UniProtKB/TrEMBL annotation:
Family: Belongs to the ABC transporter superfamily.
Domain ABC transporter: 11-245
PROSITE patterns: ABC_TRANSPORTER_1 (PS00211), ABC_TRANSPORTER_2 (PS50893)
Record-given protein name: Metal ABC transporter ATP-binding protein
GO MF terms held by the record: ATP binding
Domain of life: Bacteria
InterPro entries: AAA+_ATPase, ABC_transporter-like_ATP-bd, ABC_transporter-like_CS, Metal_Ion_Import_ABC, P-loop_NTPase
Length: 262
């Protein structure tokens, strides 16, 4: 990971508001994330968690407010250091018709609008990223043969291949088995110890509780709690909102909303 100890907060959001068709989804969010922090975004479905992380990395437009990544306004897209940012959307089980191997999926993390095929040395990068996730021996296996937890780890490896300083993950523990949850938690702890700043969307802390140093809880698009991880997480009723605009792209690959692929 890069050493940028003198820089401002990794993420800074000021009075962020997002409207997505049905009305306001985020209402005046203020958030600063310092380098090296492991932060959990908590809240019920519809509270605005996914919308917030997409707003933070420029995938969802702001109705008002401002977001900075590494000190650069996210609206100045060409100036944002995107290779320093890894994003893992919510996992969707792959179809048997999708025969991409784990190494092919991970290598796609190196592609951009200007770089349509991996460069020299990419195979080593791919293997290192898969090894970090404990999947080096399955590099040439088709992803549709993997368990849900293994698929999630492949997506994280894709985000890690550029060695990002900021890793943003949406619901990594959803719908996976206990062994995979434990393995994912161990991998994220290793990354955090290496200096990676982590923002993770969660319904509950569960296996990631030892990792999390700060928890921000959302309800109805507003921050209702910001501080140490809660001992108990009361259920928060909410209404589901579309959390993405169709056709958005991050680091060269498409990101879709809850009604389609992600």
């Amino acid at each position: 990971m890069s050493n940028h100890s003198a820089e401002p907060s990794v993420v800074r959001a000021e009075d962020v508001r997002v409207d997505l068709g049905t009305g306001p989804i985020l209402r005046g969010i203020d958030l600063q994330v310092p380098r090296g922090q492991a932060l959990a975004l908590l809240g019920a479905n519809g509270s605005g968690k996914t919308t917030l992380v997409k707003a933070l990395i420029g995938l969802t437009p702001l109705a008002s407010g401002r977001v900075e990544l590494f000190g650069t306004d996210v609206s100045a897209r060409r100036s944002v250091p995107w290779p320093r940012i890894g994003y893992v959307p919510q996992r969707v089980s792959s179809s048997p018709s999708m025969s991409a191997t784990a190494e092919e999926v991970v290598a796609s993390g190196l592609l951009t609008n200007r770089r349509l095929r991996p460069g020299p040395g990419s195979r080593r990068q791919v293997r290192d990223a898969l090894a970090e996730m404990g999947l080096a021996e399955r590099a040439r296996d088709s992803v549709h043969l993997f368990s849900g937890g293994q698929q999630q780890r492949v997506l994280i490896a894709r985000a890690l291949i550029r060695q990002p300083d900021l890793l943003v993950i949406d619901e990594p523990l959803s719908g996976i088995d206990q062994a995979s949850k434990t393995a994912l938690a161990a991998s994220l702890r290793r990354l955090h110890r290496a200096g990676t700043t982590i923002i993770v969307v969660l319904h509950e802390l569960a296996e990631l509780r030892p990792l999390i140093g700060r928890a921000v809880t959302l309800a109805q698009g507003q921050v209702v709690q910001d501080g140490p991880p809660p001992v108990h997480q009361p259920a928060e009723p909410g209404h589901h909102h579309p959390d993405a605009l169709p056709g958005t792209v991050f680091n060269g690959y498409p990101v879709h909303g809850p009604g389609g692929r992600r």
